[in-house]
């Protein structure tokens, strides 16, 4: 469908519904099944991040981060999706110096943040290797 990560990100960033999201820690893999509706036609896609180096999740702002979420009560959507080919810069914490990261994908999903540092990503059957 598209030849570059940037084209896929632009396409998804225009808005889509999330049908399913799964993280397999043993495979270091994050899978998202999404649906994009254009001109009354819906198309489902799968995004797979493989060989994840780091994954960061933030449950919202302030005290709302601790609220219980019922998946069925919301229309889950990706509101913003960005790709940073060189990463956003090295992030580290003084207490966890050996666990630094350089995030290259950021999602805003209903005001929840997911940030991923991955070495491979695929959009449907189109696989991209970011780092060897």
Please give the order of strands in the largest beta sheet.
1-2-3-6-5-4
The major beta sheet can be summarized as: 6 strands, antiparallel, barrel
As a percent range, the share of strand residues is: over 45%
Give the number of DSSP strands. 7
Percent helix, as a range, is: under 10%
The coarse overall form would be globular
Mean pLDDT figure: 88
H/E series, N to C?
HEEEEEEE
Low-confidence spans: pLDDT under 50, at least 5 residues? none
Number of helices: 1
InterPro entries: YxiG
Question: TL;DR?
Answer:
The protein has 132 residues and is mostly beta strands. It has 1 helix and 7 strands. A 6-stranded antiparallel barrel has the order 1-2-3-6-5-4.
Question: Could you characterize what this model shows?
Answer:
It is a single chain. The protein has one domain (5-129). The chain is mainly β and 132 residues long. It has one helix and seven strands. 16% of the residues are buried. Helix content is 7%, strand content 49%. Strands 1-2-3-6-5-4 form a six-stranded antiparallel β-barrel. InterPro entries: YxiG (IPR057808).
